[in-house]
Amino acid sequence: MIYLVTEVMWLLSSNWLTQNEFLLDLAKKLYDCVPLWPQDFTRIAELNAKYADLPGDFADLSLIVISERLDIAAIATLDSDFDIYRRYRKQPFERIFVLQYESQIQQVKILQEDLSNESDRPKFPLLSIKWRSQF
Questions:
Q1: In this structure, what are the phi and psi dihedrals at residue 100, rounded to the nearest 5 degrees?
Q2: CA–CA gap between residue 89 and residue 71 (Å, rounded)
Q3: Please, are residues 93 and 87 in contact by the beta-carbon 8 Å criterion?
Q4: What does the buried/exposed string (b/e) look like for 24-59 if buried means 16 or more CB atoms within 10 Å of the residue's CB?
Q5: Cβ(48)–Cβ(61) under 8 Å?
Q6: Between the CA atoms of 90, 92, 121 and 119, what dihedral angle is there, to the nearest 10 degrees?
Q7: What pTM was estimated for this model as a whole?
Q8: For residue 60, what are the β-bridge partners?
Q9: Are 104 and 98 in contact (CB under 8 A)?
Q10: What is the DSSP letter of 81?
């Protein structure tokens, strides 16, 4: 999960207050980590070869693998490479989180407040992090 926190911190680097809000949310255990399994690394290696011409990184490829394993097409990301990446080698991602860096965390909190029924909550790994039922 450290590699994903590092990527989020870089994406939020224009505003240290937003970075700290994200870190404090992690400290409060507002997210459950979706871990990589040993077999996931084989798929990550396949994807690394397939997308060798893209500036993909371990965090991107991990998200693809986790989305395939959990059968989740919607992904929260600012990375336009997810318009190119494909799940199961052909299925496109639904990028649902294309916001300005500074408002990223605030928009997620507004979304969380608006979702009153757990079954209505979006199913996507938030940077390999899934929603907890206490929101």
A1: -65, 145
A2: 13
A3: yes
A4: eeeeeebbeebebeeebeebbeebeeebeeeebeeb
A5: yes
A6: -40
A7: 0.63
A8: none
A9: no
A10: G
